[in-house]
Design brief:
Blueprint (H helix, E strand, L loop, with lengths): L2 H8 L5 E8 L2 E8 L3 H12 L3 E3 L2 H16 L4 E3 L2 E5 L4 E2 H6 L4 H19 L16 E4 L4 E4 L4 E3 L5 H17 L7 H11 L3 H16 L3 H7 L3 H15 L1
Antiparallel strand pairs: 1-2, 2-5, 3-9, 4-5, 6-7, 7-8
Helix pairs in contact: 1-9, 5-6, 5-7, 6-8, 7-10, 8-10
Length: 244
């Protein structure tokens, strides 16, 4: 698919509505999937043959519950067709990177996200992957100087190897972070990744995914990163220079 066409098609791909609720002394985030979500998910996944799926119904509820229990030891509540999720502390990382501030501080926040992703990948049986690990799905806690994943309705194809799934998570995180950083800082971003995610095999697989996406872009992956064509090229070049 042409890159410009895939880019234009990526923008409407949104599936859920979020809100905040307070029950007693406990703050929750409410999460409700639109009624047309299952149909849109089925159509887009059939058209683009993506390697992950957006869960709906009981499968979505189970996925959110398992992830919160696995990563944070927290419970998720169902209220009709809406989920009430524990409100984790912090600010959405995408908003942090959009705000004015020194690039060094922004890269430090991205590093915390990479470290959180690595910890999640190593949790339990080490088979966990997020499926949509962009900076829009991490929270930055400035008090604890740590990041946390949230938003687990997307799941990788379980038939894909764990190493591929981990690499795809790293691709989504690096691309969405790069979209908020100046291209001249991409070499610094890539060097940081090698330190914060100490698995060279996953890093190499991530670069391979970037090259493949540059050759064959699709709206689902572009909806994740929001990184334009020039950004793809600059990030790949920085990654390749770091490996020399």
């Amino acid at each position: 698919m042409n890159f410009a066409l895939a880019w234009s098609l990526s923008w409407p791909l949104r599936f859920v509505a979020l809100g905040c609720v307070d029950e007693g002394r406990t703050p929750w985030v409410s999460k409700h999937q639109y009624g047309w979500t299952p149909a849109l998910v089925a159509i887009t996944q059939a058209l683009f043959r993506v390697r992950f799926r957006t869960l709906t119904g009981a499968a979505w509820v189970a996925r959110e519950r398992q992830a919160y229990a696995r990563l944070y030891g927290l419970s998720v509540r169902s209220v009709g067709s809406t989920l009430h999720l524990p409100r984790l502390p912090g600010q959405v990382v995408d908003d942090v990177l959009r705000a004015p501030g020194p690039v060094e501080a922004q890269i430090a926040v991205v590093r915390a996200c990479v470290e959180a992703l690595y910890r999640a990948h190593q949790s339990g049986d080490a088979a966990f992957s997020h499926g949509d690990a962009t900076v829009r799905n991490f929270l930055w806690d400035p008090v604890m100087h740590t990041a946390r994943l949230f938003d687990f309705e997307t799941e990788h194809d379980p038939d894909r190897p764990p190493s591929w799934r981990r690499a795809d998570d790293l691709r989504a995180l690096t691309g969405s972070a790069a979209a908020r950083l100046p291209p001249e800082r991409y070499p610094e971003l890539v060097c940081m990744l090698a330190e914060a995610y100490p698995d060279p095999a996953v890093g190499a697989a991530c670069l391979a995914l970037w090259r493949d996406l540059r050759r064959r872009p699709d709206p689902f992956h572009l909806a994740q990163t929001r990184l334009p064509a020039a950004g793809h090229t600059a990030l790949i070049e920085a990654w390749e220079r770091a490996q020399v």
